[in-house]
Each structure stands twice: as structure tokens, then as C-alpha cells.
Specification:
alpha/beta, Rossmann fold, 2 domains, 10-stranded mixed beta sheet, two-stranded antiparallel ribbon
């Protein structure tokens, strides 16, 4: 993540894709976001080495969805399947980026999915993933990347085509809260939605006013609609209530391996998009 005139900007965006419908919708959202930020977009397709190893076992079988026919699944067949999915993903990247008149590319890696995504994340500013794991459960890949990625991670829900909507960020005046606030404002401006700044655990009105004024100075003047709300305790239930009552589309969090347990609980509790910055 690079500074640009005092504001944070994402120059290089990477989106994890496969050939599924949900993944292609994710790609569209990522491309639209990259275009709005003037960022470079690339996709990554990981040929899961675990699937190839599984296909090499003598008992591996594939069941056809429509015919219910059981087929022997061998290493070469799985390679062809993965190659076909990668080709489909490449065509999707070309199609979406061509429509938006921007450059796009797809890189193909083979290995453990998390390992390859972590390696690729070292060269970008933002990694975009589907939340995975079903409607109410955070996927294991998304969970690990949100905690371990060296760059910011944006987790999008299944209905990724929708606009992100109002953005929520907690501001307690700590050094890394400044970065969270600026990033949250940038995303709010992109979608022309408001920003809700939550100020937690103030012991007095004077402390609340100090943090309120600090946040206002950081945001500066402009057309962005900003609301402020005092909150005694920012816990999982508080996040869920605010997301529901305020129609929040994106929550911006700060995280890393040192915050793993707390971060994972918040990610699992939120059914909206979540941006984790470093």
C-alpha cells in the first residue's frame, strides 16, 4: 500500500479466480474496483496440487452431475480439467478488462492454494478473495489469507456484484487507525456512499470530541458524507448490529498474525464485505 499525497492508494490488485460462477462475479467486482482506483489488475488461478495428488490415487472417482455416472479420475484427466478451468478463467479476465478498457492478465500457479496466494500477495497492494465457506461460514482459505497475507485483503460475499454500500471503520486514535480511516474514506468515495466512523470506549465527552476532531482533520474537506457514532464496546455483536441497522456494505479492519483470534471472530460474524489492512 503506497502513500499518494497523504492518502492511501492501491496500485496493484490481485484477484483469486477459478471457473465458478461466484468467482467470475468476484472478478467483475474486482475489475470495477481496480478501474475506479486506476489500479493494475491481475488474476491468479491456482492448480491445487492436493487435487492432483488425490486424482493419482487408485480409488479416486468422479461423479457426473447430470448422469450420475462414476468415472475413474486419474492424474492426467485432472490436469486436463484444471487446464480447461484456467483457460476459462483467462478468457473471463480478458473479457471483463476489455469491457472496462483496462489491462488485465492471469497468472497460473501450481501448489498449495494458500501457499501460492501468499507468495503472489507479496508483489501486490490488495488481494481480493471470495469469503467462501457458504453463506454464514468463513472459508478456510479466506480466513488464513486475511490473517497471514503481507498485503491488504478484501473479502467479498457471494453477492459480489452488488455495490459495497456505506463503509464502517472504528477510530480510536491509534497510529494504525489513521490508515484504516483513510482507506475507508477512499472506498466510500469510490462507491459514492457514506462513511460511518465509530469512536469507542470514551471516558468523557472531551475525549470523544478530541477523537472526533482528529478524525475530521485526517479526512479533510470534501463531498464525502461522514457520520460519527460513539460506542462503549466494539465487540462482535456491536459490529453485527451496526452492519444491520446502518446497512453497512464494507467494514474496514486492521489485522495481522498478532490479532489472529480476534480478527477471525469478527470476520466470521460479518456477512458483508470486509477489508483487512496491514
Amino acid at each position: 500500500m503506497n502513500g499518494d499525497g497523504g492518502a492511501f492508494a492501491f496500485r496493484r490488485i490481485l484477484v483469486a479466480v477459478d471457473a465458478s460462477t461466484a468467482s467470475l462475479e468476484l472478478l467483475e467486482s474486482a475489475a470495477t474496483l481496480a478501474a475506479g482506483m486506476g489500479a493494475e489488475l491481475s488474476g491468479i488461478f491456482v492448480e491445487d496440487i492436493n487435487l492432483l495428488h488425490l486424482a493419482g490415487l487408485p480409488f479416486a472417482r468422479e461423479m457426473g452431475w447430470s448422469s450420475a455416472t462414476e468415472l475413474h479420475l486419474d492424474y492426467q484427466r485432472m490436469e486436463r480439467v484444471l487446464r480447461g478451468r484456467a483457460d476459462h478463467a483467462r478468457r473471463a479476465v480478458v473479457s471483463v478488462t476489455t469491457q472496462l478498457k483496462m489491462h488485465g492478465s492471469l497468472q497460473i500457479a501450481r501448489g498449495q492454494v494458500v501457499t501460492e496466494l501468499l507468495r503472489a500477495a507479496q508483489d501486490v497492494d490488495l488481494l481480493i478473495l471470495g469469503k467462501g465457506g457458504g453463506a454464514t461460514r468463513l472459508g478456510d482459505v479466506a480466513r488464513r489469507l486475511a490473517v497471514e497475507s503481507p498485503c491488504a485483503v478484501l473479502l467479498l460475499p457471494k453477492d459480489a456484484r452488488r455495490r459495497l454500500g456505506p463503509v464502517l471503520v472504528v477510530f480510536a486514535g491509534q497510529p494504525r487507525d489513521e490508515g484504516k480511516l483513510l482507506v475507508a474514506a477512499r472506498f466510500a468515495r469510490l462507491d459514492h456512499h457514506g462513511l460511518l466512523v465509530v469512536i469507542p470506549s470514551c471516558s468523557s465527552m472531551a475525549e470523544y470530541n478530541r477523537l472526533h476532531d482528529q478524525a475530521r482533520q485526517l479526512l479533510g474537506s470534501g463531498s464525502l458524507s461522514v457520520g460519527y457514532q460513539a460506542l462503549g464496546t466494539v465487540d462482535m455483536r456491536s459490529y453485527q448490529r451496526l452492519v444491520r441497522e446502518e446497512g453497512i456494505g464494507l467494514v474496514v479492519l486492521a489485522g495481522g498474525t498478532e490479532d489472529a483470534a480476534d480478527l477471525e471472530s469478527r470476520l466470521a460474524a460479518l456477512d458483508c464485505a470486509v477489508l483487512v489492512i496491514r
